[in-house]
Amino acid sequence: MFDKDNWQEIFATIKKNKLRTFLTSLGVGWGIFMLVIMLGAGNGLKNGVLKDFDGTATNSFFMWTQRTTKPYKGMKPGRDFDFNNGDAMALRQLKELAVVSPQNQLGGYQGGNNVIRGLKSGNYEVAGVYPNIAQISAVKITQGRFLNENDITFKRKVCVIGRAVKENLFKPEEKTLGDYVSINGVYFMVVGVSVPMGSGGQAEQEASRVVVPFTTFQNAFNYGDQVGWFAISSQPNISAAVAEEKVIALMKERHKIAPEDEQAIGHWNMEVQFKKMSGLFAGINMLIWVVGIGTLIAGIIGISNIMLIVVKERTKEIGVKRALGATPVSVMFQIILESVFLTAVAGYFGLVIGVGLLELINMALGADVPMFSNPTVDINVAIVSLSVLIGCGALAGLIPAQRAVSVLPVEALRSE
How much is the pTM? Predict the structure, then answer.
């Protein structure tokens, strides 16, 4: 492999046919360049979309009440009903569930309420939650603390405000923790400031949110034992879909809802959505590999064809080598080495340019495009791709090499 004469012959051939060598190598380089770009773009899209799942347990689901649509046990369809504290206690008895977190919100889902501090006010979501909601939807606290069990037990009038709430109601130099905000005439002491974990619209919604202890919410805003909805996660070894079926069946039984009524209880399963998105991107990734490998194969075939031309041009030279005692193996090695060299160099430059372009795109976009994030390629994938490409280069040179040694030395010397 390190024979000086072999390398001199390779470089002499390349120098003699610069344009042909460049165009041949371009096919291989373009193939791996496109593979890297497509993989990076696919990863960027995947990272951007799945970022919305950041901070939320993928084995979780959410459940709320709607109107019944079927008659049952003497009750007419179209009946309204509410979850209650008793439902929460019943759900906590199910062994399939890890976390049961009741929630309420003033004005219902995405409803806004005036939150006042001094002469400033803003329209924000006000929610009553349990501390264990952080086990389902992660909470990042930048100041102070999150709600705790003592807040629930003693019905403390405390709250955690989102970043947007703080920026609007408080000046940068003002102390936030320990101050008070008024919600519907009830004063709550700020004990923490949170920032969203995800991105996009959901993140903006979380940043404009005020959370208070669930028990305090029910007491302060006259909700009695009403529960707006539940955030629930299953045990690690239990599918969220299985747990969801048991939960809905239990709630239908408790609220006298027809088992076949699919509309009475609304629900949204994070596990199902996450699996759908993961499956979608697995399919996209497979398609990228099929297209990329097809492009690479086209480049490899080009290398093989050029090496056949090289062998034909050097038939007489090969005949002289054979006549002087060169073994078939040494002749084959020379041809394969040239093929591998062209493939490796072209592949390396295609890989470097592709990775460099992805880095430039990543730097240019930054965090400005929520649906596209960190379009990079795993270094192991890049190394494996280049290694496979070099192996293919060896195979591409194998047929021309066999062609070279199949010609008898006498016939080769007669070649013009």
Answer: 0.69
